[in-house]
Amino acid sequence: MVATPAHVLDPLASLGNEEVLRIRNDFPILQQTVNGKPLIYLDSGATSQNPLSVIEAEQEFYEQRNSAVHRGAHYLAVEATESFEDARSTVAAFIGAEWDEVIWTSNATEGLNLLSYSFLNASLPGADPEAARFGLSAGDEIVVTEMEHHANLIPWQQLAQRTGAVVRYIPVDDHGVLDLEEAARIIGGRTKVLAFAHASNVVGTINPVTALVALARAVGALVVLDACQSAPHMPLDVKALDVDFAVLSGHKMLAPTGIGVLYGKSALLNAMPPFLTGGSMITTVTMEKAAFLPAPQRFEAGTQKISQAIALASAVNYLTETGIDRIHEWEMVLGRRLVEGLSGIPGVRVVGPAAGIERIGLAAFDVDGVHAHDVGQYLDNQGIAVRVGHHCAQPLHRRLGLTATTRASTYLYNTTDDVDALIQAVAGVRGFFGA
Fold first, then answer.
1. Cβ of 63: how many Cβ atoms within 10 Å?
2. Known catalytic residues?
3. What start and end residues bound the annotated signal peptide (predicted)?
4. CATH 3.40.50.720 fits 59-320, yes or no
5. Other CB atoms within 10 Å distance of the CB of residue 55
């Protein structure tokens, strides 16, 4: 049984500012000042910060157990392998998967590319008959949404170009909400893959996974879920959602960069052709051919991301101990406060669902007459870190009539004071620039 960490005042109570301030003490980077002001970090949608326990978990691996996994019988190799596979089990439990359904990747982008290239390999002449269900050809369709991050769009565009398939997309309305009537019309007999974000990294929309999965199941399409903006912030059960594949990124959920996860149903992973080949993913090799291991090793060629995986497991433990439901509830509070406060500033347009509609704890906004990059620089001078640009979602910005926005995104270490400081600072932007 995992002990309740010191920062948790009451594991059954809702998070509040008092406990969040205790949580913040676990994050060394948040103790500094920027431009002479206390750092207010509101860019966790891009990269979250690391608690000391995660930093120490990776350091401890290098100090005590550093060795290649699955390749040696000596003490350090055995210890490293055990820690590495324990980390896999920890992350699998966090998302409701089995241990052999979790594949380590460098990030979610690599996971999505792994899928698209595996599907491409299944489309080539001479592919294993077992992999036929993943193959695409002229006339087949891959369906995405208009709100996708480029990482969940470009790999499918590339796959379509190489196979003759077509990419179609489910449109969004003026608030960035999916048009489900159009989704029902678009997802049809030619649909082979449906790939969509659980939550938008721009408008914060939480998509109706159950309804979309039902549409895909009705036509036999595979479902790929981008969980990068959901796994860190709300409960995620891939089995309950019945998605075939899902990806997430460690650096958005308190872990280091360089580690991600591809989840896939076991039967599907073991039927898919591999993407990367080489050492550690084979059973037998001759000078003419090779036979491959089952998943997860089937997709983990070469030296693995050992310390990063262990650190990700530590991050998952931190989230679990704090309470992912409590984190989600707190971020709903912060998200509503963001939207309501920013929407009340003259000349500021908040994109995404209106206040009162559930969203993850972020808000992207446009300041009339001031470019997003100038807004970001102004806020940085106030010690407030936000994201500026198109957030790797140019089609969505184009649909909303914008080229760039400023995005503030919260996490478990943000307080209502952080949000209020941002709102107060944004209220001064147009005056400062004379807009």
1. 9
2. 392
3. none
4. no
5. 17
